[in-house]
């Protein structure tokens, strides 16, 4: 990661720390580091690239809370998507 991109990442992490906002770091792409930020009702995925660019994707809750019975839907949807990839 070039110094510009790394400096942006460090500055962002320092701001999160100052505001006491929880985050996790991940490395999903060779050229980027991802910071996942979770705040009430939202999840932000912020990727800092080696060329200094930044990409952001926000996931905002509609406020609807589901029960345990919804967990099976997670696995059935994933299984359906996986079978389409294998069959395709």
Can you put this structure into words, describing what you see?
- Strand 3 (42-49) and strand 4 (54-60) form a beta hairpin.
- This protein has helices at residues 3-18, 71-87; strands at residues 23-29, 32-39, 42-49, 54-60.
- It has a single domain, classed as Double Stranded RNA Binding Domain (2-Layer Sandwich).
- The mean pLDDT is 88.
- It is extended, with a radius of gyration of 17 Å.
- It is of the alpha+beta class.
Summary?
The protein is of the alpha+beta class. It has 2 helices and 4 strands, in the order αββββα.
- General shape: extended
CA-based gyration radius: 17 Å
User: What is the domain tally?
Assistant: 1
Tell me, rounded to a whole number, the average pLDDT. 88
Biggest sheet character: 4 strands, antiparallel
Count every beta strand, where a strand is a DSSP E run of 2 or more residues. 4
Percent strand equals: 25-35%
Helix content: 25-40%
> Could you tell me how far the N terminus lies from the C terminus, measured between alpha carbons in angstroms?
36 Å
What ranges have pLDDT less than 50 throughout 5 or more consecutive residues?
none
Report the top-level CATH class. Alpha Beta
Structural class: alpha+beta
- Please list the strands of the largest sheet in the order they lie side by side: 1-2-3-4
| CATH fold-level label | Double Stranded RNA Binding Domain
* SSE pattern, N- to C-terminal: HEEEEH
CATH architectural label: 2-Layer Sandwich
Helix count from the secondary structure assignment: 2
